[in-house]
Amino acid sequence: MPTIKHLPSNTDSQIISSILAEDGALILDNVVSDAFIASLREETDPYMLGTSNGADDFSGFKTTRTGGLLSRSKKCQELITRPDILSACETFLAPFCEAVQLHLTQIIRIQPGETAQAIHRDKWAWGKHLSHLEPQFNTIWALTDFTAENGATRVVPGSPTWPDNQSIREDQITQAEMQAGSVLIYSGSVFHGGGENRSQEDRIGINITYALGWLRQEENQYLSCPPALAKQLPDTLQKLAGYAMGQYALGYYTPPGAPGEHPEVVSPAYALGKAVEHESMGDLDKALSTTQSG
User: Fold this and answer.
1) What is the longest distance spanned by two Cα atoms in the chain?
2) Using an 8 Å Cβ cutoff, are 32 and 141 in contact?
3) For the chain, which residues score pLDDT lower than 70?
């Protein structure tokens, strides 16, 4: 039976990146406290409990998925911008982009009686067109203990380089068992899926994922957290949400208004009331050097 490596919470980002590239997943143990989880759940449980179960087998007929956490939870904002997680994310995705972005925020509650989710790759969100690169850095924060009985995420260690049509055997699958407060980190290329909940308790985790800044987000952060709300966020969160250029010439816009009222070409940051010194589509030289290094 394969295993997932468990590492201390202060593990270096280069080590995390190296293990992810080979294994596709790892667990950092006991990263946040019980008090932090309690505060986070106080903010988010009303939204979670107000969410309907999934409407298809993949989403889970006994699973709820609650998004929009960037604008709903300050504790979730803290998870999104943890310096250690962002450092590992940027290290892992650096060969393929100039900037990373927030891809998805979601509380996943697997309830008793839920069946196992189909094994898949998260990067299939963009179809099966990205076999030559790694587009994602993903986390699932355990808000309850994750056990084999309550639906701990099933993972196929070592599978990031396998072909998309690879048949997965049960003896190649393990489960991401971990204590509440720990975090499963996994790539967009590793085969995985939600587990079957054979217990009498909910399995609750927060899925926060990051992607290359030049790709389309799975959860549309501009609508989940529009400018009126994004203006209130710290600069780091604004940029992660997408209120910044994703690469040279990716993401600029022309503000509506009377002729000459606004600059013709501006970064999305302009929508948050930020001044721009000159019209620009970004730094082409930097974008080209990033592309060449990848």
Assistant:
1) 66
2) yes
3) 277-294
Give the pLDDT of residue 294: 40
What distance in Å separates the CA atoms of residue 164 and residue 75, rounded to the nearest whole number? 36
Closest CA to 43 of 140, 143, 152: 143
3-state secondary structure of 2: coil
Render 79-117 in DSSP notation, one character per residue. HHT-HHHHHHHHHHHGGG-S-EEEEEEEEEEE-TTPPPP
> What pLDDT is attached to residue 285?
62
pLDDT of residue 104: 98
- CA distance linking residue 107 with residue 45, whole number of Å: 9
Q: Please, which residues have CB within 8 angstroms of residue 138's CB and are 6 or more apart in sequence?
A: 122, 185, 186, 187, 188, 207, 208, 209, 210
| Residue whose tokens read 């996994």 | 186
Q: What is the value of pTM for the model shown?
A: 0.93
Strand order in the sheet with 174-175: 174-175, 154-155, 192-193
Residue tagged 């019209």 (tokens): 279
Which of 8, 20, 65, 42 has its CA nearest to residue 182? 8
Token couple for 187: 């790539």
- CATH numbers and ranges of domains, the chain: 6-212 (2.60.120.620), 245-293 (no CATH)
Total Cβ atoms within 10 A of residue 169: 8
